[in-house]
Design brief:
The chain is an alpha/beta fold and about 1000 residues long. Helix content is about 50%, strand content about 5%. A six-stranded parallel beta sheet has the order 3-2-4-5-1-6, with helices on both faces. Helix 37 links the parallel strand 15 and strand 16. Helix 31 runs antiparallel to helix 32.
């Protein structure tokens, strides 16, 4: 999303660059609260630093180099395009050992300009070598350098074989070598300066003797361990060379707390050796540390007693040492010590003395830190939950299985009881506990035996026949039941399964109150966080199956659950055609009709003209317009999709011949003008080709049988409507035009134009990801070494894994983009991998904490994923405040004007809406961030939650202090106004 800098962001960027320009220190922390646009601020800092000259150490070699370090490739994909430098190095070639070549290529390529290069690095692959041989690109480049050295020029073939340590395909390996040979040749020209320089630096490195000896040993006597160690040593050499060649002007370390070990420059590790080249130089690069949580914010007494380490305090001291240790004009440690002593003596010293010490510490921190927080709005918290009978049954049955396993293994099974947290977190444990040691032990112990439970009563595994025949599967878990209630209603009355997209925040017209979109006007996607890796898979499978079961079992009673991949379902569809399976029902003429981008129909309906009216009035007016503009004779006659297409083609031409249409056909054309996919996309994109392509992709969702079943239920299969009419009417009732316009505004705040239309169209189309699959154990496969059952996931999906390869990363990114769209998935489930640094707020205002996190600050981090710029609850509220304004830009402009009159900075309205503005909306219509924390009655989780809630209100007062929880006891009786005076203010906009 293209965003203009707000006043508080400009103030922050200016403050950071002023610190750099002061030449007092070159390291600054940007620690704005989650969701306030730290990436946008970083972009402005990058721009302003790029305007400095060589007196500040910038542009001293004619190239502006910015190194962007973040924890994983997902964040690279999300953020690098938003940092303002278009020349971004490919992450595949961002391995640190290769930068000497990459930077040299860019310098030559951009010679004569003022080149700016953004170099993304990930610590796991760039700084932490871990005796690894790296990837194929690294070793192919390495071969081209080493093969010309005196020690290796007579062993080229053997060297090539040794460096192909992972036995990659020979063609691919040789192609990579040839590729880098050519690139080096292009850089060398006639003089060969580049390769000579690099080879000389390799041989002069202090580690060359050891590395070359090991590699020669591996050549003469092939051995994997020796080869791996030798290659790892050479990677370190090339990394050090690259560090010199990089010579960055600015280093941005995003969410650096995930790799804070890079700040340990005094260590003797390889990692520290590399980072000293970045951070250890007296006149090194400017360094911008970026994190909302730059150190662990709170250490509980339990953690302190268990680990004997006050990690919060140690992290704070390490960070401030890194930021301020070069300062000669003040001793930060002493300043902070004085303030800490004042806090500890709060009961005896006067508050004014403590506040004076706080002010001194605050001013010192402001020399190297900046943090702005949003205006606080009340989060709605839902704790209500009962106990499901299935919870008790699941626990008892799992315990019985463990007892049997102990009997089989004569007490040597290893587990005596089933962990209570497992049962509280997931039903059908043996179906979803893949990679858990308990499940593996049970499988091994049973060794093909049947479960010691009656098959029709067991609740530990999903039953194949139940899934195959689309029988209702009880949640058997109170937390899952709670999620079902939120999505579908306690009695199923919400029918959330019938929604194919999130209702528009600013609908252009009203629809009947009984319609599914009207009943779910406040619907939100749900982001679920869990401590257990099985939960995301379980939720994705159970919720997606429940949606299919609610639809398909009613619409197509004879249909069965196809257990094939999508490519195989065509055959299955053909088999089930006589059972109305529902696939590919929108095709040929009907597909062309619904995706047709008609200019005449697009002009027949102007959303702004009819804003706020009832759909009946809108239809009547549009119908009259169509009749009035064309030579139409209304008379009874049959019609088809093809005849409607012919009529539209005639509408779009200059033909003035009479067009004969039945009243029913005219009604369809009226609805097409208001809401057919092709017309809506054309009205948005103003480009027929792009609109037709997007509409065709959009219409694919109606050819999935669970969605086709939804439409049959909504419109009653016995109605006279044909399927394409159902689709068009569904789009009208779903305010599709308003939905697409809102989505386009989130993609790019500028009106659609020639510069952004392709980006907007592509982003929308990329949201239609369809479905994925999860393989799970059932009664048929468990402990029997049979093929697992494949469950489709679409309504709910898991996000990411703790360890992801390139394919996993791309899949996670696709899922994130789809979740940040009005279309499915509507539920996203994640472990801590999705907890920091990612946006999930475009269509989500509800978050479910499946398990209470161990640290209170994790609650804020999680909720920060959905409490961000122009998040769903913000858009819904500003639209209700200004319902008579048509365009989103106008709505936010007017909301900003009102906020300015109240003296509020530009945090309002895009990030938060203070209560005094919200009060203009009736209480029942106000929307908020909703935090669902399902707690079992009488469980220990209640006391854990109460303690966490009390800590959240005060823990900021204990920032950077040892033994925080004990210190909190001193503050519990403080008045609210005194607490506000004691809070440290590092916000440039508020300090002004």
């Amino acid at each position: 999303m293209e965003k203009k800098l707000k006043d508080f962001q400009i103030a922050t960027a200016n403050h950071i660059v002023d610190i750099f320009k002061s030449k007092r220190q070159r390291r600054v922390l940007l620690s704005d609260e989650v969701g306030l646009g730290k990436t946008i601020v970083s972009k402005e800092v990058i721009r302003q630093v790029g305007e400095l000259d060589e007196t500040y150490g910038v542009w001293d070699d004619g190239i502006y180099r910015v190194v962007y370090i973040c924890s994983n490739a997902n964040i690279v994909k999300q953020n690098t395009e938003n940092l303002g430098i278009t020349e971004v190095l490919n992450i595949d070639e961002s391995r640190l050992s290769m930068q000497h070549l990459v930077v040299a290529k860019k310098a030559k390529e951009m010679k004569g300009e003022k080149p700016q290069i953004l170099i993304p690095l990930t610590p796991g692959t760039s700084f932490n070598l871990q005796n690894s041989a790296g990837n194929m690109n690294e070793r192919a480049l390495m071969y081209n350098i080493l093969s010309a050295l005196p020690d290796f020029k007579d062993h080229k073939l053997a060297l090539k074989n040794r460096l192909n340590i992972y036995n990659a395909n020979a063609v691919n390996w040789n192609n990579n070598i040839t590729k880098y040979e050519q690139e080096i040749s292009d850089l060398d020209g006639e003089e060969g300066d580049y390769s000579k320089k690099i080879r000389q630096e390799v041989m002069e490195d202090e580690g060359y003797k050891e590395a070359s000896s090991l590699l020669l040993k591996a050549i003469s006597c092939p051995d994997y361990a020796t080869s791996n160690k030798a290659i790892s040593l050479f990677r370190l050499i090339f990394c050090k060379i690259s560090m010199k060649e990089l010579s960055p002007d600015l280093v941005v370390m995003d969410e650096f707390q995930r790799f804070s070990s890079l700040l340990d420059t005094e260590d003797n590790s390889e990692e520290a050796l590399l980072t000293r080249n970045f951070f250890g130089q007296e006149n090194g690069p400017f360094i911008l540390l970026v994190s909302a949580t730059p150190y662990k914010p709170f250490t509980t007494l339990e953690e302190l007693n268990e680990y004997r380490i006050d990690s919060q305090y140690q992290d704070f001291i390490k960070l401030t040492d890194f930021l301020f240790k070069e300062r000669a004009d003040f001793d930060f440690k002493q300043v902070w010590h004085d303030y800490s002593m004042g806090l500890c003596q709060l009961s005896t010293d006067s508050l004014d003395i403590l506040i004076a010490k706080k002010d001194v510490a605050e001013d010192a921190m402001y020399e190297g830190m900046s943090r702005t927080e949003r205006y606080r709005t009340q989060t709605k918290t839902d704790l209500t939950m009962g106990i499901d009978v299935g919870d008790v049954v699941s626990y008892c049955q799992m315990q019985e299985i463990i007892n049997v396993c102990n009997d089989i293994q004569k007490g040597q099974f290893g587990a005596k009881t089933v962990p209570m947290e497992y049962v509280k977190s997931s039903p059908y444990l043996l179906s979803f506990m893949d990679k858990y040691k308990l499940k593996q032990a049970v499988e091994k112990a049973l060794d093909g035996r049947l479960l010691p439970i009656s098959s029709h009563k067991q609740r530990c595994l999903l039953k194949v026949d139940d899934v195959y025949r689309y029988r209702k599967i009880e949640p058997c878990n109170a937390k899952l039941g709670k999620l079902y209630d939120i999505l579908f209603g306690e009695k199923g009355e919400k029918h959330g399964e019938q929604l194919l997209w999130v209702p528009a925040s600013h609908p252009y017209y009203s629809i009947p109150s009984h319609n599914v979109f009207a009943r779910n006007h406040d619907f939100s996607k749900i982001l679920v966080f869990s401590a257990w890796e099985m939960v995301p898979r379980m939720i994705a499978c159970m919720v997606s199956y429940a949606v299919e079961q609610k639809s398909i079992s009613l619409a197509f009673p004879a249909a069965t659950y196809t257990n094939q991949k999508e490519s195989d379902e065509i055959n299955e569809r053909n088999k089930q055609e006589n059972r109305k399976a529902g696939t590919e029902r929108l095709r040929d003429e009907s597909l062309r009709l619904t995706s047709f981008p008609s200019l005449f129909l697009a002009n027949a309906y102007c959303p702004e003209e009819y804003l706020g009216q009832d759909i009946k009035n809108v239809r009547a007016s549009v119908r009259s317009y169509i009749i009035g503009q064309k030579n139409i004779k209304v008379q009874p006659q049959s019609y088809s999709a093809q005849s409607l297409l012919d009529a539209i083609t005639q509408f779009d031409s200059d033909c003035t011949d009479e067009i004969q249409l039945s009243s029913e056909a005219l009604d369809i054309l009226t609805d097409m003008a208001i809401g057919s996919p092709g017309v809506c996309f054309y009205r948005l994109l103003q480009n027929q080709d792009l609109a037709r392509e997007a509409a065709a992709e959009f219409c694919k969702m109606f050819n999935r049988r669970y969605n086709a079943a939804t439409l049959d239920i909504v419109y009653n299969k016995k109605s006279a409507l044909t399927y394409y009419q159902q689709v068009i009417d569904y789009c009208v009732m779903g305010n599709l035009q308003a939905v697409l316009d809102e989505f386009a505004h989130m993609i790019d705040e500028e009106p659609v134009n020639a510069n952004n239309v392709n980006k907007i169209q592509k982003r929308i189309v990329d949201s239609f990801i369809g479905r994925n699959y999860q393989e799970i154990d059932t009664t048929e496969s468990f402990a029997k070494k049979k093929k697992k059952w494949r469950i489709r996931t679409h309504y709910a999906m898991p996000y990411g894994k703790m360890k992801m390869n390139e394919r996993d990363t791309n899949k996670a990114n696709d899922t994130r983009l789809a979740f940040n769209s009005p279309f499915r998935p509507f539920v996203l489930t994640s472990t801590s991998v999705g907890q920091e640094g990612l946006d999930f707020h475009w269509y989500c205002r509800k978050i479910m904490h499946w398990n209470i996190p161990s640290n209170p600050q994790d609650i804020e981090q999680r909720e920060g994923r959905i409490d961000r710029y122009k998040s769903l609850y913000v858009r819904r509220n500003v639209a209700k405040l200004h319902p008579d304004i048509y365009e989103w830009s106008g709505i936010f402009d007017e909301a900003r004007n009102e906020a300015e009159k109240e003296g509020l900075c530009e945090l309002v309205p895009c990030w938060s809406i203070p209560q005094k503005l919200l009060d203009r909306i009736p209480d029942s219509q106000q929307e908020r961030i909703e935090s669902v924390i399902p707690l079992y009655p009488l469980s220990a989780d209640w006391s854990k939650y109460e303690r966490m809630k009390s800590v959240l209100g005060l823990y900021r007062l204990t920032m950077g202090q040892p033994r925080q929880e004990e210190l909190l006891e001193l503050f519990k009786d403080l008045r609210e106004e005194d607490i506000k005076r004691l809070l440290i203010n590092l916000s440039p906009i508020r300090r002004k």
